[in-house]
Amino acid sequence: MDSGIGLLAAAVAVRRLRPDAHLVLSSDPDGMPWGPRTPEDVADRALTVAAAAAAHRPDALIVACNTASVHALPALRAALEPGLPVVGTVPAIKPAAAGGGRVAIWATPATTGSPYQRRLMAEFADGARVTEVPCPGLADAVQWADEAGVARAVAAAAALTPSDVRAVVLGCTHYELVAGRIRSAVAQRRPEGLPPVVLHGSAVAVAAQALRRAGARPAPSAAADGGLTVLLGGRESGLPAEARAYAEGRLLEAAKPVTPAP
Q: Which PANTHER family match (predicted)?
């Protein structure tokens, strides 16, 4: 679940670990973006989106949204667990900082400098030099597949990123859909002789944790017969057109749809 198409990266990560998994993608196109909303409003909308997904009786629920993980995770777990394991999304600060050096965290303006992100930095930065980089407009541009908007927002954030940065944490699930463009923009400002910058998203770790919570094991060689159900505002639909602008969306759309129960 997510407000929009930021869930695509986590969904593809699950698909690669379990090609036989049936995926339910639940989002809130009428209420997004969630970032500017109050914590109470985010929690209410997240509970509605989660309830739509839970009606399909999944084995685990991935909250593929940093904003919802900050503001709604306790409410979601109180409402759904222990019957439905709920897995939140946390920026990959710990693995990014493990190698030391300079690390940048790209995040929405609301998250940048927030007590939540500062707590994660204090707990997991492990002595690395961390620069917080706000990315105004990037999540929205990704959501609407606005190529020019993505280019402007990525260039602006790259200009705020130290040129000798060793790793970049993608602190919003939408950013993982344009990881290649982020890597290229940061590389253009990088001094010669430095190794390539490493990007750290959350999708792979979240997918692995969801399988563990569901009591399942990775089986990447399983039959690729997993289905797909898409819920937009609780209504069954196809993937939104914007999702098809990304490789992740096209990969998921290739899956056979799940036939609704009679």
A: GLUTAMATE RACEMASE (PTHR21198:SF2)
Question: 65, 70, 84, 207: which one is catalytic?
Answer: 65
For the whole model, what pTM was predicted?
A: 0.91
Q: 93-200 — its CATH code?
A: 3.40.50.1860
Tokens of 142: 């990704």
Q: How many CB atoms lie within 10 A of CB 111?
A: 21
Per the structure block, which two tokens stand in for 251? 């990969």
pLDDT in tens, 202-244: 999 999 999 999 999 999 999 999 999 999 999 999 999 999 9
Q: Active-site residue among 172, 185, 197, 203? A: 172
CA 43 – CA 48 distance, rounded (Å): 9
Residue 21 CA to residue 5 CA, distance in Å, equals 19
Q: Which CATH class is domain 6-89+203-254?
A: alpha beta
User: Do you find a cis peptide bond into 33, omega within 30 degrees of 0?
Assistant: yes
Query: Is residue 135 annotated as a catalytic residue, yes or no?
Result: no
